[in-house]
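#structure-requests
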Amino acid sequence: MAKTIPMIITNKNILLRVKDGNEFATFEMPGIEEDINIPFYHQFAGKIAECQHYFKEFVQSQYGKRLSKYILAIVVPDDTSPLERIFINEFFLNSGACKGVAQITMGQALSKEHKKYISVSMSTRNVTLLYVSNGEIKVRKYYDVNEYNPHQISEDAKRLHIDVEYEQVPVFINNFNMNMDAFAEVGQFVSPKEFLDKISVIDVEKV
């Protein structure tokens, strides 16, 4: 049976869970510079072979040479577009660093105890509001990261789906990037450590 390697694509780099531990090692591609409102991995497209080579070496440094028995469980920002998701899957699947890939958003990983909940997160581009039910995203709403109103987002969260209007659904604030202070009154914070603890035991069969 294939083994799972949890991996997170953050706003600035890639985090990979180390072998036989719950800590995460950081992968940063040499020569990649930060670009406002554009995820860093977009630059991988200009030098795919080189980036895949360095990434495979990085995974081998953590898991050894026999990578064909592993599946990468990739956790992406909540505002990742369908085309970006395809690129991410293809890039890592063809890197030689794994047997296969599976992908979920950060919002889908915020709670294992609740079947239904609201997620609020912020990337370099957007504040994203999600309604998650039984692990699936039922509703997704975006707000420009430069023009958002926490009070309006809080009010929108109450009407995001009919389930939310007639049931008590918890709201979780993904504070992984430590940039959600403005949402202190909106819901329950999930700290970076809490998020990493959840991801470190991710089960690829449930992705």
